[in-house]
Amino acid sequence: QKEVEQNSGPLSVPEGAIASLNCTYSDRGSQSFFWYRQYSGKSPELIMFIYSNGDKEDGRFTAQLNKASQYVSLLIRDSQPSDSATYLCAVRYPGSARQLTFGSGTQLTVLP
Amino acid sequence: DADVTQTPRNRITKTGKRIMLECSQTKGHDRMYWYRQDPGLGLRLIYYSFDVKDINKGEISDGYSVSRQAQAKFSLSLESAIPNQTALYFCATSDGGYQETQYFGPGTRLLVL
């Protein structure tokens, strides 16, 4: 069974700090990786997509992918209270008819 | 107007009742999905459809059925609701491109008594 594992948290960081969220996956052949943000009571929204080893930066967000170690992480620099949300990691496994497998999410709280 | 809409937004029903959750999209996407979300379990795929004539079971399809009435409409039915189907249900669409971002509707909160 394809698995995506995330620490459920909650993770608390002070405002202005770097928040680090981690995700591991079970299939070494996985090719595409997504980070979604979900505010309480709202629907998930995509914030990062990465498919190559290394780092991808978008504003205050950096996704890091290490296929050899089978983990993908999300760094949020200069964390703001508005970043408080649950962050979902999703993986597209090979041969999966382009379905996504989601982790259970990490709840992040940024303290003012 | 929202690109992906779901109706109803909230529903309370009783065990054994048949209910339908509806999803409509104006994004012009061929691919549509139904997920359920339970606390601590993330999103799990129930059914997905790549076009009107293509319906596929997901990870947890037992107890559910779907209908793709048109490119823009994808409905989820619970034939005989049971309490462990109490959850938050999301519809999503995607364009089938390389990145294939999935866009989610606002969700339907279902309570089965």
- Contiguous low-pLDDT stretches of chain A (5 residues minimum) are none
Helical content of chain A stands at under 10%
Instruction: Please report which band the strand proportion of chain A falls in: under 5%, 5-15%, 15-25%, 25-35%, 35-45% or over 45%.
Output: over 45%
Sheet with most strands of chain B: 7 strands, mixed
Number of helices of chain B: 0
Helix residue percentage of chain B: under 10%
Alpha-beta content class of chain B: mainly beta
Mean pLDDT of chain B, to the nearest integer, reads 93
Morphology call of chain B: globular
Unreliable stretches of chain B (pLDDT < 50, length at least 5) are none
Number-wise, the strands of chain B total 11
DSSP E strands of chain A, number: 11
Explain what this protein looks like in three dimensions.
The complex is a heterodimer of chains A (112) and B (113). With 112 residues, chain A is mostly beta strands. Chain A has strands spanning 4-6, 11-14, 19-25, 32-38, 45-50, 54-58, 61-66, 71-76, 85-92, 101-102, 106-111. In chain A, 0% of the residues lie in helices and 54% in strands. The relative contact order of chain A is 0.35. In chain A, strands 2, 4, 5, 9, 10 and 11 form a six-stranded mixed β-sheet that branches. Chain A has a five-stranded antiparallel β-sheet with strand order 1-3-8-7-6, with no helix packed on it. Chain B is mainly beta and 113 residues long. Helix content of chain B is 0%, strand content 58%. Chain B contains no helices and eleven strands. Chain B has strands at residues 4-7, 10-13, 19-25, 31-38, 42-51, 54-57, 64-70, 73-78, 87-94, 102-104, 108-112. In chain B, a hairpin with a 7-residue loop joins strand 9 and strand 10. The model of chain B has no long low-confidence stretch (mean pLDDT 93). Classes of the chains: A mainly beta (112), B mainly beta (113).
